[in-house]
Automatic annotation (TrEMBL):
Signal peptide positions (record): none
Name of the protein this chain belongs to: Short chain dehydrogenase family protein
Organism, as annotated: Collimonas arenae
Ranges where the NAD-dependent epimerase/dehydratase domain occurs: 7-221
Amino acid sequence: MTQRKIALVLGATGGIGNAMAQKLIQRGWQVRALHRRAGEMAVSNSSGIEWRQGDAMQAQDVIAAAEGVALIVHAVNPPGYRNWAQLVLPMIDNSIAAARASGARIVLPGTVYNYDADAILAPNEASPQKPVTRKGAIRVQLERRLQAAAQSGVRTLVVRAGDFFGPHMANSWFSQGLVKAGQPIKKVVYPGKRGIGHQWAYLPDVAETMMQLIEREAELGAFETFHMNGHWDTDGTEMVAAIGRASGQPDLRAWAFPWWLVVLGSPFVPLFREMREMSYLWRQPLHLDNRRLLKLLGKEPHTGLDEAVRAALTGIGCIKT
């Protein structure tokens, strides 16, 4: 993609949105971002992003911000798992409308929520999507709307990966579950069962994968989906051990996540209710098949686990350089 190297990033203050914005800038793109307090962001943020006033829930704001862009990175999600039913689909409809008006391709970070881990352990891009949760069903609807829009010229690229972690990901299982952002590491609280594999995705690697695919625009169809391997923790111990090494505590103890508290509190605490719904991904292994990505790119962008974990812990303020 060489024409109009302008991109609109929705969710630029979030983990993958920020990673994509920085990656685009490094590659010579002009990056716009939509924010309800654009003036404040322009003053406090010196990263080279052009901040536009607006709200991703307002179609006209998104359409106006996307004027003349070649790419829309749809990395916006409701915070804390909440209000998905009311917010997720209207936001993707607004991005579709903006892409239709501008001729841009939409780039979407996909989730594993679309799959039932009981039904298939290693889904590829053609595997049936039979979600077992409300959020999974919403994500399936979201992708179906994009696929339908592709029939009338709205191009989409979906890159699906495991649980995100990285230097600017303060709201994730890694930074709010295993460790606590901004706090020294004294223990790791692990949500999964010992012996059950779990898939992780380092944000800079996800952004680099997206970027390499974007740069192969001529080889992409109207609706494309690719899966990443990222970091596959075969038994739930590798991520804990990497955190121990990065923090200089090789014997760091892993404590069991208090799911009992989540169960008891879920009728009263909305966040606990949402966490309980997604808990199946910690009880059952789900390992995305990345062979289609490898066929196109040759290899998947990959940072070693120790380097990635050290950068993530430093970025979220758990260890000092």
